[in-house]
């Protein structure tokens, strides 16, 4: 497989925004206080991505597993999503951000679903930066929904089973139309993927930082991008082969 040398600025960045609870605990405040504080960090990374020329930013806001949290925390998060959608969409729209939600959106109540759809429709024509918010999202869910679409296409007689290959199945995965995931960041010190973009992460560069999400700012993103720019992406080849082709 020949791969063009990836640019030094990642085209597509994904972030597991982790550490809100610990940030709040350190301040003797409820976990929801940390989630609220995380909104500022979201604004910071969006601004930084616009400035750096990143094309797509995918943020993990709520995992398919997070439904298992205490009911009051889930409720607080839903309230926060509603408030954030009511308050931030104007500003994002002004900045030319195209918003998209990925995940099992049917799991949300109607009021929230309507707001998500309205925000997507309103910003659909923007092209400065694509921001994807993953909610009720799981990487395994994504692979299952893509497989179901493949199976349905076969059942309709529009595709033969032997025609299903990586490229074809990949077309049904969330974010398939965007540049490939170049940089995967996780804040909050844990070194795990937690069922985020399993399919898409295959050849992403991973970056883990101890910084808790509410403390993550533009300088932190810059550091991650600088680190990324120093990586050699070999895609299975040798360093010598990469040097010749670049
Ligand atoms: C991430 O922060 C936000 C969500 C999962 C919604 P956490 O709430 O997981 O914070 P920690 O990991 O407990 O500090
Ligand atoms: C992952 O964080 C999900 C989000 C940041 C939205 P978690 O805090 O839920 O992950 P685990 O459970 O510690 O792996
Ligand atoms: Mg966590």
In short:
This protein has 246 residues and is of the alpha/beta class. It contains eight helices and six strands, in the order βααβαβαβααββαα.
What features would you describe in this structure?
This protein has 246 residues and is of the alpha/beta class. The chain has a single domain (12-138, 182-245), classed as Undecaprenyl pyrophosphate synthetase (3-Layer(aba) Sandwich), CATH 3.40.1180.10. The chain is 43% helix and 15% strand. It has helices at residues 20-25, 31-52, 71-94, 110-123, 139-155, 166-170, 218-229, 239-245, and strands at 12-16, 56-63, 97-102, 129-137, 183-186, 205-208. A six-stranded parallel sheet has the order 3-4-2-1-5-6, sandwiched between helices. The longest helix has 24 residues, at 71-94. 32% of the residues are buried. It catalyses: 8 isopentenyl diphosphate + (2E,6E)-farnesyl diphosphate = di-trans,octa-cis-undecaprenyl diphosphate + 8 diphosphate. The active site is at 18, 66 (proton acceptor). This is Ditrans,polycis-undecaprenyl-diphosphate synthase ((2E,6E)-farnesyl-diphosphate specific).
Q: Give the total of domains.
A: 1
- Ligands, deduplicated: 3-methylbut-3-enyl trihydrogen diphosphate, magnesium ion
Mean pLDDT: 96
- Describe the largest sheet: 6 strands, parallel
Q: Point out poorly predicted stretches.
A: none
Oligomer designation: single chain
Per the principal axes of the C-alpha atoms, what is the gross shape? globular
Organism: Rhodanobacter denitrificans
Catalytic activity: 8 isopentenyl diphosphate + (2E,6E)-farnesyl diphosphate = di-trans,octa-cis-undecaprenyl diphosphate + 8 diphosphate
GO molecular function: ditrans,polycis-undecaprenyl-diphosphate synthase [(2E,6E)-farnesyl-diphosphate specific] activity; magnesium ion binding
Protein name: Ditrans,polycis-undecaprenyl-diphosphate synthase ((2E,6E)-farnesyl-diphosphate specific)
């Amino acid at each position: 497989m020949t791969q063009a040398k990836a640019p030094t600025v990642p085209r597509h960045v994904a972030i597991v925004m982790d550490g809100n609870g610990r940030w709040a605990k350190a301040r003797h405040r409820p976990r929801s206080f940390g989630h609220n504080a995380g909104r500022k960090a979201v604004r910071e990374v969006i601004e930084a991505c616009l400035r750096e020329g990143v094309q797509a930013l995918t943020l993990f806001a709520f995992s398919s597993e997070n439904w298992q949290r205490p009911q009051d925390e889930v409720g607080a998060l839903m309230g926060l999503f509603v408030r954030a959608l009511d308050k931030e969409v104007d500003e994002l729209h002004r900045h030319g951000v195209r918003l998209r939600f990925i995940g099992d959106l049917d799991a949300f109540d109607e009021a929230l679903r309507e707001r998500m759809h309205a925000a997507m429709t309103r910003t659909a024509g923007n092209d400065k930066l694509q921001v994807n918010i993953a909610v009720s999202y799981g990487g395994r869910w994504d692979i299952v929904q893509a497989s179901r679409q493949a199976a349905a296409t076969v059942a309709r007689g529009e595709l033969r089973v032997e025609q299903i290959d990586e490229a074809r199945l990949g077309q049904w995965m969330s974010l398939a139309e965007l540049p490939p995931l170049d940089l995967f960041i996780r804040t909050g010190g844990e070194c795990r993927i937690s069922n985020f973009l399993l399919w898409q992460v295959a050849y992403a560069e991973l970056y883990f930082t101890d910084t808790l999400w509410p403390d993550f700012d533009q300088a932190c993103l810059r550091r991650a991008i600088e680190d990324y720019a120093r990586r050699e992406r070999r895609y299975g080849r040798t360093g010598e082969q990469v040097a010749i082709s670049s």
